[in-house]
Design goal:
Length: 355
């Protein structure tokens, strides 16, 4: 793979949105990174170009069989004006793990990180600086070969686009209501649940649509075989605090290994809070609720960092968590992780990568 990245700068820079208009994933920076894969040649033609639409053959395999993977990460601007990333090497490592599962050729992780840093340097002014804002980064790879046969594609694009995003919690963190799903499943062991691939999301839309109509903001997914073991919440990993102990489902092959999840585990251990990675059933959560030991529950992922759970609906029961208020450990984890990410707190873990 050639390590040269050519650069073509835009001649028509866009107007940057005002902070209040940011939202999530609606605005995109002036430039994008793209490189191509051709069988026999490998990855080639790495380039940074003005953000623009793509021209693809209607028979491009991505449109038909969904061979694609993606990542999600953020860049933050500190009060001192530095731009920094949070554990970005983990994202590119996971990208290759997803590639492996989807029969997509691996990318050079160091090269991908260097490419991202070059893109960030060019679009540096797009990293918002208001508290709670960040630049969301979306690397993705998809099959471009024009062919309707079912087989791994011989051609791919690897693209990185970036989007300035607003504060997820502009009016303070409000715990959300969650519907525990018993009909649909997100993933099964042996499937693609461990990979960050679009198909997992397409598969989850139906249950999410039904939950939204009932006034619930996310689905709590149970395992695909016995419909008992808790897996994830929406597109986040899930944590419970029961009787003083923090519990998160152990990675089992169908759960996405979140980098936020891993960071929470490190933070909890550093704070000497008991934490367990193990199987946990919905019945155990119901029992804890009945015994008054279900103390806190929250989802964890890059976009929201933490989303506290105020209510769980399972069959005909409604389980209220911590009176619908955010719990003390949840708040501490949120403050600590966001503090490290935006540079207001020290990073004893070596997680921050400065531009
Ligand atoms: C991306 C993702 C997560 C969270 O991963 P992070 O690395 O923490 O952002 C959790 N579950 C699913 C299904 C995901 O796609």
């Amino acid at each position: 793979m050639s390590s040269i990245i050519t650069t073509q700068l835009t001649t028509t820079p866009k107007q940057k949105p005002a902070t209040e208009q940011l939202g999530f994933g609606k605005h995109f920076t002036d430039h994008m990174f793209i490189m191509d894969y051709t069988e026999g040649q490998g990855w080639h033609d790495a380039r940074i170009i003005p953000y623009q639409p793509l021209a693809l053959d209607p028979s491009a395999m991505i449109f038909h069989y969904g061979q694609s993977v993606f990542e999600g990460m953020k860049a933050y601007k500190t009060a001192a004006g530095d731009v920094q990333l949070f554990r970005p090497e983990r994202n590119f490592k996971r990208l290759n793990a997803s590639n492996e599962r989807l029969c997509i050729p691996a990318v050079d992780e160091q090269f991908a990180l260097d490419a991202l840093k070059q893109l960030l340097a060019i679009d540096r002014e797009w990293v918002p600086s208001e508290p709670g804002t960040s630049l969301y980064i979306r690397p993705f790879i998809f099959a471009t070969e024009p062919f309707l046969g079912v087989a791994p594609s011989k051609n791919y694009h690897f693209i990185i686009i970036m989007s300035p995003v607003g504060a997820y919690y502009s009016e303070g963190i409000n715990p959300v209501k969650i519907l525990v799903e018993k009909q649909y499943v997100r993933a099964v062991i042996g499937g693609t649940g461990e990979a960050k691939t679009g198909g997992n999301y397409a598969n989850g839309l139906k249950a999410q649509e039904i939950a939204s109509k009932e006034g619930y903001s996310q689905i709590l997914w149970l395992d695909g075989k016995e419909n008992r073991y808790i897996e994830e919440v929406g597109s986040m990993n899930i944590f419970f605090k029961i009787n003083g102990k923090v519990i998160t489902p152990a990675l089992n092959g169908s759960i996405l290994p979140g980098i936020t999840r891993d960071s929470m585990l490190h933070l909890l251990k550093a704070k000497n809070i008991d934490v367990e990675e193990r199987r946990i059933t919905i019945d155990e959560v119901v029992q804890a609720f009945e015994e008054g030991t279900l103390e806190e529950a929250f989802g964890a992922g890059t976009a929201a960092v933490i989303s506290p759970i105020g209510e769980l609906k399972w069959q005909n029961r409604k389980l209220t968590v911590n009176d619908g208020q955010i719990g003390a450990v949840t708040q501490m984890l949120y403050d600590t992780l966001t503090g490290i990410q935006n540079g207001t707190m020290e990073d004893p873990f070596g997680w921050i990568v400065k531009l």
